[in-house]
From TrEMBL:
Family indicated by similarity: Belongs to the SEC8 family.
Function: Component of the exocyst complex involved in the docking of exocytic vesicles with fusion sites on the plasma membrane.
Protein name: Exocyst complex component Sec8
Region (Disordered): 1-21, 316-338
Organism: Glareola pratincola
Exocyst complex component Sec8 N-terminal domain sequence ranges: 46-144
Entries under InterPro entries matching the protein: Sec8/EXOC4 (IPR039682), Sec8_exocyst_N (IPR007191), Sec8_M (IPR048630)
Top-rank lineage group of the source organism: Eukaryota
Every Exocyst complex component Sec8 middle helical bundle domain range: 273-323
Biased composition (Polar residues): 329-338
């Protein structure tokens, strides 16, 4: 009994010194290794068994005393473990779903980019189709503008159509005939404008002089004083040169040709384009500038200058002779008896 008490005391002292169970095990091993007698070993073994039995009894008593708390703790621990396991599974599933969404978003982004590019391509194709449809109507509209002498609108339309046909629409094989036709018209358009410019420079202006001369001739037959009426009075005639010269002395608030830039000249489709000869010639020059034919225009004016001036002299001489002959006829009729 004393030995058992001593063993129990050593056991308790060893447990009190070290909370680590391995310390007790090392102490037992050391005791067994140092003892030489089998009886001592058996005694040590008995003490250990007695100590373990006491521990089991104490543990059973504690379990009985705290059964409810232990059961609650175990159930709570199981619930917590299950929740943690479920949370891990859910997190794993969420990660998998996020990876799947990421892949799908990449695919959707590629599809959206593809659709966006296709939308741009379709929009460009539609614009080209609209442009082709408008260009197909250019020959008819061009003919109407040329017939009504709205040359600036015709020039703009022709230049724009040719630029489109030789630019964005160059690869469209179905427009090759139209391309050749409009290109040919563009190459010859400046000839029509130059002829119109010469007609207004030399013919239309002198026709106005002739009309004034005829009116003055009729007035002279009424007053019977033909010698006092000049044959041609061009002092009040508004030619382009005089128009420019008088504009130098115009007030800042007045509208003059010098103050009006060629870029500001616009064509009114509702009015007669030849009503104002000066503006009409400005429109012709603007059209020739758009066609880039100003050097050819200057050369044509220089080449035809002498010929046109001779024609003016010839027409003026014919008008003077006709007026003189008409006055002689009138005088001869007045001298008859009746």
């Amino acid at each position: 009994k004393m030995a058992a008490g001593e063993a129990a005391g050593r056991y308790r002292s060893t447990m009190s010194k070290s909370k680590d169970p391995s310390g007790l095990l090392i102490s037992v091993i050391r005791t067994l290794s140092t003892s030489d007698d089998v009886e001592d070993r058996e005694t040590e073994k008995g003490r250990l068994e007695e100590a373990y039995e006491k521990c089991d009894r104490d543990l059973d008593e504690l379990i009985v005393q705290h059964y409810t708390e232990l059961t609650t703790a175990i159930r709570t621990y199981q619930s917590i473990t299950e929740r943690i396991t479920n949370s891990r599974n859910k997190i794993k599933q969420v990660k998998e779903n996020l990876l799947s969404c990421k892949m799908l978003l990449h695919c959707k982004r590629d599809e959206l980019r593809k659709l966006w590019i296709e939308g741009i391509e379709h929009k460009h194709v539609l614009n080209l189709l609209d442009e082709i449809e408008n260009i197909k109507q250019v020959p008819q509209k061009l003919e109407q503008c040329m017939a009504s002498k709205h040359y600036l609108n015709a020039t703009d339309m022709l230049v724009s159509a040719v630029d489109s046909l030789e630019g964005p629409l160059l690869q469209v094989e179905g427009l090759s005939d139209l391309r050749l036709e409009l290109h040919s018209k563009k190459m010859n358009m400046h000839l029509v404008l130059i002829d119109e410019l010469h007609r207004h420079l030399y013919i239309k202006s002198t026709n106005r002089v002739g009309q004034r001369n005829k009116e003055k001739g009729r007035m002279s037959s009424l007053v019977k004083d033909a010698s006092s009426v000049p044959l041609m009075d061009v002092t009040n005639l508004s030619t382009p040169r005089k128009f420019l010269e008088t504009s130098q002395f115009s007030t800042p608030g007045s509208s003059s040709m010098r103050e009006t830039s060629l870029l500001e000249i616009k064509e009114d489709m509702e009015l007669d384009p030849e009503e104002n000869s000066t503006v009409f010639m400005g429109i012709l020059i603007k059209g020739l500038a758009k066609l880039k034919k100003i050097p050819e225009t200057v050369k044509a004016i220089q080449d035809r200058l002498e010929q046109e001036l001779k024609q003016i002299v010839k027409r003026s001489t014919t008008q003077v002779a006709d007026n003189g002959y008409q006055r002689g006829e009138n005088l001869s009729q007045e001298n008859q008896p009746r």
